[in-house]
Task: inverse folding
């Protein structure tokens, strides 16, 4: 039996990314119940980033429900998935259905999805960064101490509104925590000359990398900016699909790609994207799309297998939600802990789900 459910979970506090304000996260959970196995996937296009809406995803699922269910029952999913992907090239849809299929296969074998996908890996912990919002110096340093006490060794500091104030905080943060890794996220807020000046001032602080330094209409100057700073540059919002990765790899403007699997598509497409970046010596950091726990688990598993070991990944986003579809603890000492149970390793709380008939 194949079922679809929607969820709509408010964030603890509304926040803004690239000009879009997010008050809640919504998506679809796909569930396949067959021969005593219950498998799951999550489809959650991110408004403001994805080219397709949740309503479009739901329409495709409803239209193809019977055919999809038959393909899963008859072990013909790969063939059906290929055809569906050619007709409906929706990355989040492909990501969610591929998750459902591989969760089912892993549970058939009685092993975790991490072991099924990456049998050579032994660890189930992936280092994650914490996100430090800019407040006054005293409050920000207090928050940083708490994050470090919780085991986070990498802090991402949001900058881009008042550099003088932000520089003062970063100086204080580095002085108090000389061994902590610090990365900054500008969210495309600096003009080229500002970026050159600001990055020059930040260089003595041993900044791990700077995400999205340039305003959108000056991104073409990234290669030039890269030559004028020793701080590595990272792409986040600039990557909205796998074609962006191909284009940016060739342009050689970034040292690091921040990859949201939900934005890329199937597992095979994510792997090819990773290989594309590797071929240009670009490190791949995985981050969630702020989705529910199913999506976060898959993102963590892919980070474990295909992500760089050099940097922490963006996995500690569950605390941003007011509640979730599973209440189990996923963070431990600054690392995301992948469940050591068959498949994705969690059960769902159906209280927050509404079935699509």
Result:
């Amino acid at each position: 039996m194949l079922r679809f459910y929607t969820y709509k979970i408010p964030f603890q506090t509304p926040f803004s990314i690239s000009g879009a304000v997010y008050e809640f996260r919504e998506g679809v959970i796909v569930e396949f119940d067959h021969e005593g196995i219950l498998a799951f996937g999550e489809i959650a296009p991110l408004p403001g980033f994805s080219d397709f809406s949740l309503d479009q995803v739901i329409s495709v699922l409803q239209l193809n429900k019977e055919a999809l269910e038959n393909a899963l029952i008859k072990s013909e999913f790969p063939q059906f998935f290929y055809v569906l992907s050619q007709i409906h090239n929706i990355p989040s849809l492909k990501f969610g259905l591929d998750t459902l299929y591989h969760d089912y296969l892993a549970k058939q074998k009685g092993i975790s999805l991490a072991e099924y996908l990456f049998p050579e890996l032994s660890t189930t912990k992936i280092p994650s960064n914490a996100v430090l919002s800019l407040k006054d110096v005293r409050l920000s340093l207090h928050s940083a101490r708490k994050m470090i006490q919780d085991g986070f060794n990498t802090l991402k500091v949001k900058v881009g509104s008042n550099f003088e104030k932000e520089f003062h905080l970063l100086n204080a943060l580095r002085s108090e925590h000389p061994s902590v890794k610090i990365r900054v996220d500008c969210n495309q807020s600096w003009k080229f000359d500002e970026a050159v000046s600001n990055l020059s001032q930040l260089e003595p602080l041993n900044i791990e990398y700077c995400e999205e330094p340039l305003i959108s209409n000056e991104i073409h100057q990234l290669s030039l900016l890269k030559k004028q700073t020793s701080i590595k540059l990272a792409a986040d919002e600039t990557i909205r699909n796998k074609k962006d990765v191909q284009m940016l790899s060739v342009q050689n403007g970034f040292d690091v790609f921040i990859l949201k699997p939900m934005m890329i598509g199937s597992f095979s497409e994510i792997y090819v994207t990773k290989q594309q970046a590797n071929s240009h010596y670009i490190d791949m950091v995985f981050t969630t799309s702020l989705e529910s726990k199913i999506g976060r688990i898959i993102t963590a598993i892919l980070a474990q297998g295909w992500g760089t070991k050099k940097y922490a990944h963006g996995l500690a986003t569950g605390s941003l939600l007011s509640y979730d579809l599973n209440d189990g603890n996923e963070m431990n000492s600054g690392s995301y802990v992948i469940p050591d149970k068959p498949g994705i390793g969690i059960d769902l709380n159906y209280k927050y789900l509404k079935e699509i008939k």
